[in-house]
Amino acid sequence: MDLDSIVESQLNLQVKISYADHHDFLVRHGLGECARVLDIGTGNGAFGARLAEDHPGVHFVGVDKRKHCVESCKKYVRSNLEFDQVDLFARSSPLDFAKFDGFLMRYFLLHVDHSRKILELFKSAAKRPSRFWIIDLDFSHFTCNPPHEAFDRLTRLVKDFCTKTSVDSMAGQRVVPMLQELGYQNIVVERHPFTNANVPLEDLALYLKQEVQCYSQMSGRPASDPETAEIVRFIDQ
Questions:
Q1: Nearest by Cα to 107 from 40, 173, 158, 194
Q2: Residue 130: CB partners within 8 Å, gap ≥ 6?
Q3: How many CB atoms are located within 10 Å of the residue 185 CB?
């Protein structure tokens, strides 16, 4: 599969696996009290479309700087949902943050190289009061029990990608200190383990294999990369 196809499949599987848990998190932390929610880094729009369907009284706007992602979102048509191609730091950006009282960042900060600047931007430009929901990975809790060399290879693969793209692989564990330093208030932290204890094993296996293939290709490894093949074999077993 080419990279775009793998990413599309992965985004859809991600929603299938985690929507109920993430939706419950948003509801418990005030989604129903918001009028307009900005979904930052919306990807293919699948998660935002589910939210719009479940909450017709809230208006959702999904933004992504990648044109092909925004084009993919157009298949979702809801009266309370729209999508736009936006670069958050472009001077010509038409986005008015003050129009929103809810900001969703789902698996977003881990994939950018300027997470602190983004949080600073929202702090200065957002409407008061606003709610911010940040759902991301904390690799300090990324473990395999019992230990296995192939899992260590998977960890190195992710860190290799982060190094090549100037992304902080530890962004997940740095979010709370950054929010505190920037003066965000009423910070609540919850940990939601993503394991084969609460995700069907076949879904978890497919998710991990597609994740490996994504990181491998984005790191510039060839399709026949032996280390990638070994990680996939480990997951299959």
A1: 40
A2: 100, 101, 102, 103, 122
A3: 7
Q: Taking a C-beta distance cutoff of 8 angstroms, is the pair 192, 21 a contact? A: yes
**Helix-, strand-, coil-residue percentages of the chain, each rounded to 5:** 50, 10, 40
Rounded to the nearest angstrom, the gap between the alpha carbon of residue 57 and the centroid of all alpha carbons in its chain is: 24
pLDDT tens track for 208-226: 999 999 989 988 888 889 9
Q: Which residues are bridge partners to 84 per DSSP? A: 63
Question: Residue 97's closest CA among 122, 80, 65?
Answer: 122
* Residue 163 CB neighbours (<10 A): 12
Name the one residue in this structure whose structure tokens are 């019992």: 146
Rounded to the nearest 10 degrees, the angle between the axes of helix 201-218 and helix 149-164 is 40
| C-alpha distance across the termini of the chain, in Å | 21
CA–CA distance, 212 with 161 (Å, rounded to integer): 11
Can you tell me the mean pLDDT for 116-128? Answer: 88
Residues 6+ apart with CB under 8 A from 12: 44, 46
Six token digits for residue 61: 């706007």
* Rounded Cα–Cα distance for residues 232 and 194 (Å): 18
Please report the pLDDT score of residue 93 as a whole number.
74
In degrees, to the nearest 5, what angle opens at C-alpha 214 toward C-alphas 133 and 196?
Answer: 65
Which residues lie closer than 8 Å to 100 by C-beta, 6 or more apart? 36, 37, 38, 61, 126, 127, 130
State the angle between helix axes of 226-236 and 201-218 in degrees (0 to 180), rounded to the nearest 10: 170
